[in-house]
Amino acid sequence: MKSTPSMLSEVQARQALIGQALSLNRLGINHGKSGNVSLRWDRSNKVQGEGLLITPSGLAYENLEPQDLVWISLQDDPPRFDGDLKASSEWRMHRDLLRARPECRAVVHTHSLYASALSCMPKVQQEGIPAFHYMVATSHANRIACARYARFGSEDLSQAMLEALQAHARACLLAHHGVIAAGEDLASALALAQEVEALAMMYSQCLALGGPAILSEQAMQAVHQAFVGYRNPAPEIQAGTTGHLT
């Protein structure tokens, strides 16, 4: 993966996050005001410290300005919020996923068409998207699980997500809802969300044709090993390098 320069200020981080949000609809994996994106951003001062930046609630992405994003402390319970607007209703999922995956810096949540449709199917709710295609391994797991249903924005939904993201998995479906994915940087989180949607589309076609054959655990393990060399991109963002708005 091509490396990109590290960001030097929180303003740049905010601008990059807006660019990420705008790309969701442009790429066809989201629509309207649904979905949300976040970025790990640690502030250098000890009072604020570890945190994340997230898109606000109810504001169209094309109208976002850097100052509209909300900073949330990562480890505090309850968390501290810094922003003039209300954070996305799904901030709990973003915070808890970044807590659970310290190696990840970004999270993307979308209501992409095929992933959302599959999340409503009883078979997929029970089994997830199995290893019908080797690219399922891009999720860092042998299947893309589906979290049980819980109301949007609730603590229960965040807990359901964590239950589905067992071991090292970085993506899951959310029953009757959509998909969430995490990555080492903005680009990899977005790429994983796109890949889950592509896999959901393929799996939907396979189910319509009678159901696919499933790769063995041994075959998937070989894929994971082959992917190792592709999973070490240079970080897009060095979290907390400056810590202030400039």
Unreliable stretches covering 5 or more consecutive residues: 1-5, 237-246
Compute the number of strand runs: 8
Name the beta content range: 5-15%
CATH topology: L-fuculose-1-phosphate Aldolase
Estimated helix fraction: 25-40%
Report the average pLDDT across residues.
90
Report the span from N to C terminus.
30 Å
Which structural class do you get from the secondary structure elements? alpha+beta
Largest sheet, spatial ordering of strands: 4-3-2-1-5-8-7-6
- CATH class category: Alpha Beta
Shape, per Cα inertia axes:
globular
For this structure, what is the CATH homologous superfamily? Class II aldolase/adducin N-terminal domain
Topology as a string of helices (H) and strands (E): HEEEEHEHHEHEEHH
Describe the structure.
There is one protein chain. With 246 residues, the chain is α+β, with helices and mostly antiparallel strands. The N terminus and C terminus are likely disordered.
Attribute tags:
disordered N terminus; disordered C terminus; about 250 residues; alpha+beta; L-fuculose-1-phosphate Aldolase; 8-stranded mixed β-sheet; single chain
